Automatic annotation (TrEMBL):
<dbReference type="InterPro" id="IPR029069">
    <property type="entry name" value="HotDog_dom_sf"/>
</dbReference>
<dbReference type="InterPro" id="IPR027961">
    <property type="entry name" value="DUF4442"/>
</dbReference>
<dbReference type="Pfam" id="PF14539">
    <property type="entry name" value="DUF4442"/>
</dbReference>
<protein>
    <submittedName>
        <fullName>DUF4442 domain-containing protein</fullName>
    </submittedName>
</protein>
Amino acid sequence: MKLSNNSLKWLMRFYPPLFFQRIWVKHISKDFKTIEVVIHKSLLNRNYNGTIFGGTIFSAADPFYSVMFWQHFRQKDFKVLGWLKSADIQYKKPGNTNLTLIFTLTDEDVSEAENALNSVGKFSKAYPVEARNKQGELCAMIYTEIWMRKIKPDQHSQAGF
């Protein structure tokens, strides 16, 4: 199903694995090439040191690059399946305040993926995302490797939205 950027934003805001960890989608660009996410520090995601639980930071980085590609291609009636294949997270300093993550795809990223999907039928690449606190300091660096494959026209997507 094709979704508008605003519909996807609201769907992701209330998706239980994100909602209950206080992961809030703040903005999705119309072309699905930028998503801004905020992790609100709260009792629900605080560890015993009083900082944001590392698993929450990891969860905030998990779905977005796959969703961005999926929706961007869906708008062009190009069907793909995508998952997070692997991730590497490096914690730099404790998340004492809300954290912001900004996911960005360039035209070159999209072209590279589309060319691979059209020629090989699958695509895999790692993309970096930073988790920054209110002061702009780097708290975590996450590298998320996404994996996608092209769906044949007669196949149906397994994606839930």
